[in-house]
Amino acid sequence: MIDNHILYSFRRCPYAMRARLAIANSKIQVELREVVLRDKPQALLYSSPKATVPILITADEKLIDESIDIMHWALHKADPDGWLIGLSEQQKEISHQLITHNDGEFKYYLDRYKYADRYPEHSQQYYRQQAEITLQDLEQRLVSNGYLISAKPTLADMAVLPFIRQFAFADKTWFDQSPYPALKQWLAEFIASELFTNIMHKYPQWQEEQSPQYFP
């Protein structure tokens, strides 16, 4: 056993963001270890062969190295806003499909849109147009439901939002003028929320000898 749950995180990583969102919403305290990706600590490399963030080591020394699994771990401990509890089986399946698509096809085009100079096979406009197929689907869902799968935020919203934020800021001028009013309102509401503000505090790079930094 270790004294605390330990979360290795990187502030701007959308995978780490969604892990922190679930942990903060569940009000589970963890020891936060902020990682600089070009200078990963030996403790992280020792803990997980993947050596990517986020990584959670629970107090009973269970390793969880997928962000969605960290979200489920937190929400199964406490889910005060019903992000997961109370969803129908159909809603859970739709949620799973949305997250799988986000982490697969959408993330593929998001990376190429954001770093188009690294992927000269196509233009940045091409990558954006491919990503827009996802934006159009999300827009329709938001117009129909209010949020992605219901009238309130759920796991799907919180798992996808950090990636839409990353997409939006790749070219904020274009995004602000884009024909997706519901999507833009959904993102703006998220960015303005107290929960998002609370997970985006800046922390210094974790050093082995420092005193624990707790989150939230």
Q: How are the secondary structure elements laid out?
A:
Blueprint: E1 6-9, H1 14-26, E2 30-34, H2 42-47, E3 55-57, E4 63-64, H3 67-77, H4 89-114, H5 124-145, H6 155-170, H7 172-177, H8 181-192, H9 194-199, E5 214-215
Parallel strand pairs: 1-2
Antiparallel strand pairs: 1-3, 2-5, 3-4
List keywords for this structure.
single chain; 216 residues; alpha+beta; Glutaredoxin; Glutathione S-transferase Yfyf (Class Pi), Chain A, domain 2; 2 domains; five-stranded mixed β-sheet; 9 helices; 7% strand
What would your notes on this structure say?
The chain is built from nine helices and five strands, in the order E-H-E-H-E-E-H-H-H-H-H-H-H-E. By secondary structure, the chain is an alpha+beta fold. The chain has two domains: 6-80 and 199-215, Glutaredoxin; 89-196, Glutathione S-transferase Yfyf (Class Pi), Chain A, domain 2 (Up-down Bundle). Strands 4-3-1-2-5 form a five-stranded mixed sheet. Strand 3 (55-57) and strand 4 form a beta hairpin. Helix 4 (89-114) packs parallel to helix 6 (155-170). It is globular, with a radius of gyration of 18 Å. The model has no long low-confidence stretch (mean pLDDT 95).
Describe what is shown at a glance.
The protein has helices at 14-26, 42-47, 67-77, 89-114, 124-145, 155-170, 172-177, 181-192, 194-199, and strands at 6-9, 30-34, 55-57, 63-64, 214-215. With 216 residues, it is an alpha+beta fold.
